[in-house]
Amino acid sequence: MARVRNWKVLYEGIVAGDRVKMGMAFSLIESNKPGDKKEANRLINACVRAKTKRSLRIGVTGSPGVGKSSVIEKLGLEAIERRHKVAVLAVDPSSSISGGSILGDKTRMLELSSSPRAFIRPSAAGKTLGGVSRATREAIAICEAAGYDLILVETVGVGQSEISVYNMTDMFVFLVLPGAGDELQGIKRGIVEMADLVVVNKADGERGNLADQSAKDYRNALHLLAAKTSGWRARVLKHSIEQKDTTTALLDKIAEFWSFIEEREIQQKRRGQQQMTWFEELLKSSLLEKVNALLSGEELKLEELKSEVYRSEISPGTAVDQLIEKIELKIAK
Amino acid sequence: MARVRNWKVLYEGIVAGDRVKMGMAFSLIESNKPGDKKEANRLINACVRAKTKRSLRIGVTGSPGVGKSSVIEKLGLEAIERRHKVAVLAVDPSSSISGGSILGDKTRMLELSSSPRAFIRPSAAGKTLGGVSRATREAIAICEAAGYDLILVETVGVGQSEISVYNMTDMFVFLVLPGAGDELQGIKRGIVEMADLVVVNKADGERGNLADQSAKDYRNALHLLAAKTSGWRARVLKHSIEQKDTTTALLDKIAEFWSFIEEREIQQKRRGQQQMTWFEELLKSSLLEKVNALLSGEELKLEELKSEVYRSEISPGTAVDQLIEKIELKIAK
After folding, report:
1. Position with higher pLDDT, B5 vs A18
2. Which of B192, B271, B287 sits opposite A287 (nearest CB)?
3. Residue B156 phi/psi, 5° resolution?
4. Is 0.90 exceeded by the ipTM?
5. Is B1 on the interface with A (CB under 8 A)?
């Protein structure tokens, strides 16, 4: 199958819901070739501008083994019953090293992935979290242009990846296991503060009592936190993939949150701000790239200067002044 | 008293231990006048290069009311008894708004401030945390050049200020009060992970039992955390300003830590890395300043572009590409 790189062809395929073209579009945005980058930018620009129906972007996080994939599958299937179109994406900064620890095995969502109303994309390629984040943001734009209205972005709790997902979604769901150790984890990492919904998963069988206790602990912990600026009060739900009514309750709560932020125009503002943040981050990193290209040349003797800084032979301020004086910036005519 | 702005005069005063010149140097580094900035950079460069005796930089954090100032005073007095010279600085990002919530009232360290072997400097002026951090890093360089070998950097637990202090010190001390609520606070904000020493303060009188429990809780929490890369195992100590032996024990533990990182050459490496980070941060912000000056002009129509990004009329990537293409960077001959 020849790869299509023309953005217009891809865009038309996407809005028509052509899944093969969607896959090609993903390859294009993850490509590092300079020519591809230009086409990818045009494509994403068209996707961002596309006026599609309302959508909800949900970040899902939790430690490995908490059951993220199976919860997402159950949630996705329930959402499809309610006539949603469901996209599942992932931000996994470890993927460049390990080949991806989440969504890598599509068979974990066998039932969901076989649905024509679901689109599952394993973790984006990328050497840095920044690269993975950018690709995921762009993947969201593609999925929405293709009419997917429930976007689930999965992440593992590694360093900054959760903050990154938080900054590209409307809602943040934190999955935990029944038991004491996990609480502390989520609390110490500040995840609970970001969560709109805490889901105590695997709340069945022998873990029933533990799950009740965990839910109580989280409710207490949430009470200690300041209210969210949105006015939404974070909730704690128990969930088991073996009890369909808990999945129904979960999706109901998600729908309640969605109405809440829509009615108050919170979603719209938050997305506008997220776009601005994305823009500013890109601008900074693009400028730094440009600067790095300049700095990597021999003329400035940067490596020499860096070792002097390391050995305290020059102060950082003076080193920077020496560099900055030499760099000229201007607007091209 | 005329302000001296000549860096050489100030530098010579500093290395001679002239406290009036030190004060003038602080004013110089906090000044925003372009001419002052140049002199300040020369001064700091000389201070960084100065080969002074070994020193330990200690970050001290904890919620308001935990007793930071009185612990620092007792610790400082004990250190002076051991022939150290003690400098107390502060990073307080709220100072630009409130006039400073820490160290603002020097009378809180009356005894310490009257010692000729102590130098206390209230929070640096600065509109941003970045500005305050820079001034504090430079203040450390000045104090060390003046022969102060125990540098205590106090901060309140506001947002990023703790991370900022962590990144400019060799050791991080976290003060807590006996009682349950505070534990959670420290844990959720990730402070405990940064701490080399947790001090349960005001461990006296009726709070004795509570303090024992808190110390136990912190020891448990610390056990759950991964070991520090330095190999140092974080400790928990109880402290009361009314019991001199607890201050002695605290300073002993600090001395133990100091030996630990010196013997393993951890301190030296960590400082080298901190200098590099400082350099890279300054380089980025200086470049961004330069870029912002360019962007604030009319030619690029940045504000217009930003509102388009906000309204999703253009994708962040395309907006950045449009800007980047127009910006020319080169090395001045």
Report:
1. A18
2. B287
3. -95, 155
4. no
5. no
